[in-house]
Specification:
413 residues; mainly alpha; two-stranded antiparallel sheet; globular
Length: 413
Amino acid sequence: MNTGDTAFMIICAALVMFMTPGLAFFYGGLVRRKNVVNTMMCCVAIMGLAIVMWVAIGYSLAFGTDHGGVIGSFEWVFLNGIDLTDVSPYADTIPHFVYIAFQMMFAIITPALITGALVGRMRFKALFLFIAFWSVLVYYPLAHMVWGEGGWLASIGSVDFAGGDVVHISSGITALTLAILIGKRKGYDQAAYRIHNIPFVVLGASMLWFGWFGFNAGSALKADGLAAHAFMTSAISAAAAMLSWMLIDVIANKKPTLVGASTGLVVGLVAITPGAGFVPIWSAFIIGALVSPICYFGVKLIKQKLKIDDALDAFGCHGIGGIWGGIATGLFAKSSINSVAQWDGLVFGEVRLFLAQLAGIGVTIVIAVVGTLVCAGLVRIFTKLRVDDRDEQIGLDRSQHGEKAYPAFNGWD
């Protein structure tokens, strides 16, 4: 074991944990006042649920002994048989428990991303059950296929440094599928859904950016040059995407917006995540600069043309941004930067990695869609997915939790 690597990875795990409260503020600021408690509560509750499930069965299923390249085993249920002196089989310079903790934080943030598409209309009980089923049927198998020993997607040469397939595409596709299943918010085509707290949005985006350095740099699994490389590509992509989104705002609306800048930096981080430890520094400028127009017009297509109520653009940002990031990794990756990539990207004359990336994206989409439909069907056995019309009208804060985010003074409500 290496004490420096161990300390670094513990800090990175804490940084990734910090991202989920950041997401709660980011999403909470974007919704209407009557739904802010429910929106933030979804993220908070998932923190508890995901940790308990990860320790009980999740880690073992995701990273245990391989079964068919698709799922792990039950050998480490409740972390049975793991000692504090054991070295991680996936990172030989850190304790096994540190690796488990780091991966646990990914299992928290991923399902929390889904909630952004569903605000204002999904029953809390239904969401809670859905996340429990989804973690078992979608997240754990995908984590094994991409990162686990013997995982099928890894065996065909598909790479994902920190979660393009496993985190962003899976959650984004699930969010889109659920939004279609549940339907639009009441009055969606007539009402104006104004952002209720822009400072919350900026606070959340800032917490996400801060935590994301642990997310991407920590995926090197040691404090070395590759971690520093991932740190820099992450910073560059986020900054380029922020400026790109601001430019789009100026062209489209004549003014740059704080919400647009915050959204841009987030999609820049999404896009660089799968390739942060594979692509050259210069390519991070291109990946970040292009993801903003890709996501901006993707959101327009989903909401204005397809009329799908992806409330906070969970698919528009994480799904589309993750797909672009996976493709960009197939374009720009260099095996000399990280030998986990078996081949160079398409820009350097190799086609095999690019095709493997497309295969990985396609498999992730299929698993997410099918898994979401199965999980939604299971939830319907126990409860309806959607709240009643009256509950939706008064807001989910009161109907689902009996709380209000703000005191009622004259003129406030």
